[in-house]
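Support request, please re-run this one:
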Amino acid sequence: MSRAAKCQKCGGALVSISLRVTSGDRTMYSCSKCDNRTWDADGGPTQLADVLGELAATKVPRRNGRAKAE
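Re-run finished. Output below.
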């Protein structure tokens, strides 16, 4: 799903942050004016709770043979 560069609530500019989880790409869109936030999962809408669950299930990459400190 393609996102317009403007917030659907107030028309403000959107900022996007993407990340990769085990099951695919996730993108958060945040309005710089009204702070409205939405999430996309591989191009379709999703909920923050779903993204958090996927992040919890995603394995953390190892560096130098050791797990990263929490």
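Residues 1-57 form one domain. The beta strands are 14-21, 24-31, 37-41, 44-46, 62-63, 66-67.
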